[in-house]
Amino acid sequence: MGAREDMYGLFTSVNEINLTNDQGGQSAKEGTHKKNISTSYDLQARMSKKGILWNWGYHDDQVAKEISARIPGFLDYDTDGFSEELYFAALREVPLGLDDYADKVVLEVGCGLGEGLNFLSRVVEAKSMIGLDLSDQAVKRANASLSRKGLRYVQGDAENLPFEDGEVDVLVNIESAHNYPSLEKFLREVARVLKPGGYLTHVDLYTTQRHTFLKELQEQDLGLEWVLDRDISPQVQAAIHGRLAPDGSFHKALREQRVGAIQRHMAKRVGPEAVGGSFAGYTDSGSTRLLKRMGVLPSQFMPPVDSYRHYVAKKI
Ligand SMILES: C[S@@+](CC[C@H](N)C(=O)[O-])C[C@H]1O[C@@H](n2cnc3c(N)ncnc32)[C@H](O)[C@@H]1O
């Protein structure tokens, strides 16, 4: 299967998962979705530059200030800092002090290349931090470049977590759950692996359908008490605008890439979608519309995202 087919598979699956209320009842379909998703992220893991995070980001001046106060010089790395801000914003709402992690086990589900959790390891000193991802290649890269005492990465599935009951104090989940065929299975696993009194902090993009489904799940007895429900769309859109500005990191990365003029032209026009462009109001360029009509590009990359949300839940 080529790169184009891999990406098509991802878009098809993500659209289907987020636009239907079929929440994973059919295991054959679930298997196809997961295969599409892991194959595509394996490919992205092989192609990504070191230090890259895979989320749409977040920007808020106060959060940026708090990060700089906690980690002086944190922008001296080759990122625009927006993706790290999303991680920080997710962790700061967990009702524990940032200095109270010494005896805590932190698990990130859907850790990608591991850079977000590595960033959090600079924010808090936890007893141990474990990142889990479906993509075998992402986990291999994370372990090769980032693992050390107290920080490791494992391959696994959010809907079937390879941990004992009550093993985890804080479970972090950043822009990953829109890939899971069954949000319910994931939340049941979260409740199982969290210690009583432990916390889930979850941020993700939501279609109207998926959000309605989450609200229904929140009414069920999953063993979780929902303590925060915040629409963080404005902060996420601020980061997307920052990235896509002429002097932003999206165009900077394109300028640095050693690719031909046609590839650069295409990436400039098609790429914004991958970093949340349509959610921030960017519309397709003429060339993108043409390629979609010709069937070279999928007619819909991401599902129509209605909001980007932050939830915190406490294990009862
Ligand atoms: C948009 S990326 C976000 C990665 C990371 N959290 C970040 O912000 O950089 C989504 C990640 O979720 C992972 N993922 C998708 N489905 C998964 C599943 N069922 N179990 C675990 N990870 C999954 C993907 O492999 C991918 O690394």
UniProtKB/TrEMBL annotation:
It holds the Pfam family Methyltransf_11. Keywords: Transferase. InterPro entries: Erg6_SMT_methyltransf (IPR050447), Methyltransf_11 (IPR013216), SAM-dependent_MTases_sf (IPR029063). Gene3D superfamilies: Vaccinia Virus protein VP39. SUPFAM superfamilies: S-adenosyl-L-methionine-dependent methyltransferases (SSF53335). The keyword Transferase applies. One of its GO terms (molecular function) is S-adenosylmethionine-dependent methyltransferase activity. Residues 107-200 form the Methyltransferase type domain. PANTHER family: GERANYL DIPHOSPHATE 2-C-METHYLTRANSFERASE, ZGC:194242. This is Methyltransferase type 11 domain-containing protein. It comes from Streptomyces humidus.
